[in-house]
Every structure is written in structure tokens, then in C-alpha cells.
Amino acid sequence: MNVPNKLTLGRLVLTLLFVLVFFSQVRFRETIALLLFSAASITDYFDGKIARRDKLITNFGILMDPLADKILICSAFIAFVGYHLMPAWMVIIIVARELAITGLRLLAASRNVVLAAEGYGKHKTISQMIAILSVLLLLSYPDWGDWARPVFGFRVFNDSWLAWFTELAKWLAVFFTAFSGVMYLWRNRQIYLQDM
User: Fold this and answer.
1) Which end of the chain is more exposed for a tag (fewer CB within 10 A), N or C?
2) Domains of the chain, with CATH numbers?
3) Which of the pair, 141 or 117, is modelled with greater confidence?
4) Are 72 and 15 in contact (CB under 8 A)?
């Protein structure tokens, strides 16, 4: 098994650990979850970079890399609903988009058509990761001691700047997720319209 595929499998393991820790009662669980999600996000960057650089692209990687990304992202957002950190309707939009695009790619693959990722999809992924990291940071920093409160808890309009930033990040993640999904479905409509 090559290095990019090991990183992809590692991301799946880190996702499982992230969920287990997030729903546990261990001390500093939010900080540990933040570190696990950050590590998983880093593997997402490096597995693709290494695969392209060293020409290690495999069928396993083509299938599992985007699937591991979606499992990581959706797991985090679904976990947030469980703790009322994000409205369910926002998460439904995000998960529905990921399932729809995965379905479209599978339909295209059944016709020997490979659908490449688009620029909007990259913006979507970045906005989702920023939203998740900001939620985890907002939960974590109160446990970091007195030094963290002035940095992350600086108040703007009766709330910390990080709380405002997190709320904005969630809305942007939903917007980019929905917009990129609509654009992707529209640009590749010939694939599914053939069967209608």
C-alpha cells in the first residue's frame, strides 16, 4: 500500500477517534477532538499532494480519498447537531449535497466518465473545514488557561469575536456547499438527464 492510501486510511481512523472522543466524557475532550480533526485535515492535504507528485494515483485512492473526506466532514457536522452547536437544517443541506454529488460521480463512473473536482468544490471544502475548526476552537479555548481568554474571548457586541467568526463561518460553509452542489449538478446535468 502506498503512502497516499495509508494517509487516506489514517484519515478514516482519525475520524473514528474524533467521534469517539467528541462524544466521550474525557477531560479536555474538545481540545483532543480539535487536534484529531486538525490531523485528519492535514492528511487530506498531503495524500493528494504526494499522489500527484509521485504519480501514485490508484483506483483505491480515487474512490476512497473523496469518500474519506466526506465521512470526516459529515461526521463532524452531525456531531455538532447532537450538542446543539449547529442547526440540523444546515447539516441536512451539507450532508445532502455530499450524498448527491457522490451519487452523481457513481453514475458517471458507471458510464466510464470521470468527473473531476471543480474550483467551487475546493472553496466548499475549505469553508467547511474552517467552520468545523472554529466550532472546535470555540469549545476548546476556555480550558487552555488565562492566556487564551484575551486572545480568543475578546468581546465584540457582548460576545467573543470567535463566536461571531464561528457563526459567520457556519453560514459561509452552508452557502458554499449549496452553491457548489447546484453548480456541479447543473454543469454535469447531461449525465443524469439521459435516464429521466
Assistant:
1) C
2) 3-193 (1.20.120.1760)
3) 141
4) yes
DSSP 75: H
**Helix 119-140 vs helix 161-187: crossing angle, to nearest 10:** 160
Q: Is 120:18 a contact under the CB 8 Å cutoff? A: no
Residue 192's Cβ-count burial label (10 Å; 0-12, 13-18, 19+) is middle
Q: For the segment 110-127, what is each residue's pLDDT rounded down to a tens digit? A: 888 777 777 778 889 999
Secondary structure of the chain: what % helix, strand, coil (to 5)?
80, 0, 20
d(CA 79, CA 92): 12
DSSP secondary structure string for all residues of 12-48: HHHHHHHHHHHTS--TTHHHHHHHHHHHHHHHHHHHH
Q: Which amino acid is at 40?
A: A
Integer Cα distance of 91 and 177 in angstroms: 10
Confidence band (pLDDT; 50, 70, 90) for 4? confident
CA 1 to chain CA centroid, Å, is 25
Residues above pLDDT 70, as percent of the chain: 98
106: nearest Cα among 158, 70, 57, 153: 70
